[in-house]
Description:
Blueprint: E1 20-23, H1 29-39, E2 43-48, H2 57-63, E3 67-71, H3 77-88, E4 92-95, H4 101-105, H5 109-113, E5 120-123, H6 140-146, H7 163-172, H8 183-186, H9 190-194, E6 198-201, E7 204-207, E8 212-216, E9 252-256, H10 261-271, E10 275-280, H11 288-298, E11 302-307, H12 312-324, E12 327-330, H13 334-340, H14 344-350, E13 355-360, H15 377-384, H16 386-391, H17 404-425, E14 429-436, H18 437-444, E15 463-465, E16 468-473, E17 476-481, H19 498-504, H20 507-516, E18 520-523, H21 527-533, E19 559-563, E20 569-573, H22 598-604, H23 609-617, E21 621-622
Helix pairs in contact: 10-17, 15-18, 17-18
Amino acid sequence: MGMPDRSKDRQDATALSGLRVVEFGHYLAGPLAGVFLADQGADVIVVQPPGGSGTDPATSAILQRGKSVRVIDLRDVDAAARVRVLVEAADVVIENFRPGVMDRLGFGYAQVVATNPGVIYLSLPGFSRHDERSSMPGWEGAISAACGFYSDLSLPAFRRLPAQEWEQRLTESGVPAAMQRTTAEWVEHALALGNGIVRRAGDHVEPGPQVDVTAAGLTDPETATGTWPHARTFDPIATGARPATGWLDGITVLDLSNVIAGPSCARTLAELGADVVQIVPTVPKMGPRQTLHFGLEVNPGKRSIAVDLATEGGQGVLRDLIARADVLAHNCLPHQARRLGFDPDSAHRVDRRVITVAMTAHGGPDQAASDLLPGYDPTLQAATGIMTRYGGERTPALHGLASCIDYFTGYSGAFAAILGLVARSRSGYDISARTSLARMATWIQLPFLNGDGTEPSGLDASGTDPADQIYKARDGWLFLSAGDRSTRTPGVGVPADLPARIARYTVAEAVRYALEQDWAAHPIVTGRMMRRAAPAARNPAPAKPEAAPESSEGPSGRVEFVDHPSGLRYWVPVASWVRSDFTPRRSLSPAPFPGQHTAEILAELGRTPQDIAQLHSAAIVADRWATGGLYLPR
């Protein structure tokens, strides 16, 4: 049965067309959030201080694309009054200053909601306001020192054929592979340019959109006269009682993914309140220990059903699940998704309101053919220049088996799913979204895409200059930053004997000295130190609506030990990345056994006990991968 021609239904409107955003961000975090919204059609107005954004011109141009930039000194009473008019009519406000800074400027959360109760106020400080380090400048190096980033992994390379020939041979055989490239080589690569992952824009290159979402039925908002370019499109959030339910309460997500990126997308949606149903094969299709080991961290909060989708009976179960779902997320190649019945066309034949989210390795916004290439986080590290920067061009090194590429892609997939839900709330249908590891690997390197090649690299690199680097004190290591080097005059305000002075100090003395100068400084924390400081093991609360939600209080960057029902004990980060006054964080249940909820989910689909028994006897479904109650197979 072929799909009907729906091309005429497509509109140029985007999910966030008309969303009003005021961005007070500086450097990277706030402007990055703003450009991701602008790329999806939001009207973003940037309030930039006279001193600039804190980034180099090329990076600033990328972060300001699609936005309206107003250079305003908020200390000027008349200028601040004009900004207040913008904020009072905004849907979203973004800022990434230290806690308290926006309050002093008159645009803190309490001050903004007093005149705009329905606003979404997004604050992105380096450390939470509940953290004793909240007053310290939150430069990335200090955050990295606090979270154990300055220790990593490395694997040896093999030599027999030229790298490009290995890449071609392995890729043509369906094996994920990539030759080592520098970032400068990546941004000129035909794959990156040909599918829109990288674009040329005047005298610089820039990343393409983080995600792309297509939908039928959307229309552009009406234009407006006055300050904002569009009439108000989004209804403000209702004020009054705010129930302790998740933002995505009532939303059902099907998770057909594995390893890290896809599962972390679905776990993020679970943290926001969605009911996530994980669909796994009846027998493992890849290394079960690796899949389940990673799964301890990326699969909490889900229910699991094991189905053989290669059977007609399994396809029937899948169709029933799709008919009840709101979002279907996967990280399969397009032909795999099509063969197993959950590509966009197949899913929309079942229900035109379901939103499909595909997270691939190399896909770009301009050419879906690149989605056909397999890949994992490490292959994209190699292809895009991350390994050569980390280890050096002569000795490229793996920057972790599952680095920020995987997780950034998972979070982007969650963002794409939410964009799809927004589009559906605006009468959209046949909604499909795409993102990829290659896109995120490019965005991660944003400050280096147009660099002159002088940035530090290699395992011996300690920082950008003496006022922004790792130091060895008498009794250990610390990171110190005197501020953003793009806005700092070299040598001004930084003692010439700083390295020698730090070498005489203990770590505690060096950190205290730096903080007295209003610099950022933090001891280098390792994974072992974090584990030693983690609280005693606990049994996670079940992920049910009636479960008491976790508190949003407490310091940033904590880890804790968790007892899994299988008897395993492991440590994970405390999920404090989203703290909202609208709804507390959800406490997630432990990662399920593969197939643990098969009978429960089939019963919800209307299958009788006899039907379920027949599916089991035909090996169409299963409730365990391993016998004897084991989570990890022997």
